[in-house]
């Protein structure tokens, strides 16, 4: 399946507790981080959606809201809600705070779709990056099982389904803006 036939979902529903303010609304030049990510990913994918607890963007984006039967912040809940929206397809999942992901990383991950994996995520020497990769929507029921057990770590899925960890050398591509200093540094280097 071609990249342009697939959808992308940017996760914007976290609490941003380490940042101290909503990461999705941080400004990069004259746009928010959400606008920046949606615009960039729109070049590669059929459609780009935002995942969040509520519409904090005034209908600016195509929104996938967290399922209201669960009242907590959780990446597992975001995945469950996303997989409830899509039927039998791969979706590219990316956190809003990973602004350096480029077409190169996406294409390398995409190259493994033709194999029999249900999850394909990036891995660097330091970390696995569960919020940068392709997930199959058939994982919905498994996500729901974990939510009912109050389990929220996405890594739990990796041992349950066939998962590919795609190795990358460049740690910089997987920068996460978790702290205000990281955001300030990124903003000052952004051209």
TrEMBL record:
What residues does the MobA-like NTP transferase domain cover? 8-150
Task: Give the enzyme class.
Answer: transferase
What keywords sit in the KW lines?
Cytoplasm, GTP-binding, Magnesium, Metal-binding, Molybdenum cofactor biosynthesis, Nucleotide-binding, Nucleotidyltransferase, Transferase
The cross-references to SUPFAM superfamilies, in alphabetical order and at most eight, read: Nucleotide-diphospho-sugar transferases (SSF53448)
EC numbers on record: 2.7.7.77
Q: One Pfam family, short name please?
A: NTP_transf_3
Q: Where in the cell is it found?
A: Cytoplasm
Q: Which domain of life is it from?
A: Bacteria
Q: Which residues bind Mg(2+)?
A: 97
Cofactor or coenzyme needed:
Mg(2+)
Q: Please provide, alphabetically and separated by semicolons, the GO molecular function terms listed in this UniProt record.
A: nucleotidyltransferase activity
Q: What is known of its domains?
A: The N-terminal domain determines nucleotide recognition and specific binding, while the C-terminal domain determines the specific binding to the target protein.
State the protein's purpose.
Transfers a GMP moiety from GTP to Mo-molybdopterin (Mo-MPT) cofactor (Moco or molybdenum cofactor) to form Mo-molybdopterin guanine dinucleotide (Mo-MGD) cofactor.
**What protein is this chain from?**
Probable molybdenum cofactor guanylyltransferase
Source organism per UniProt: Campylobacter taeniopygiae
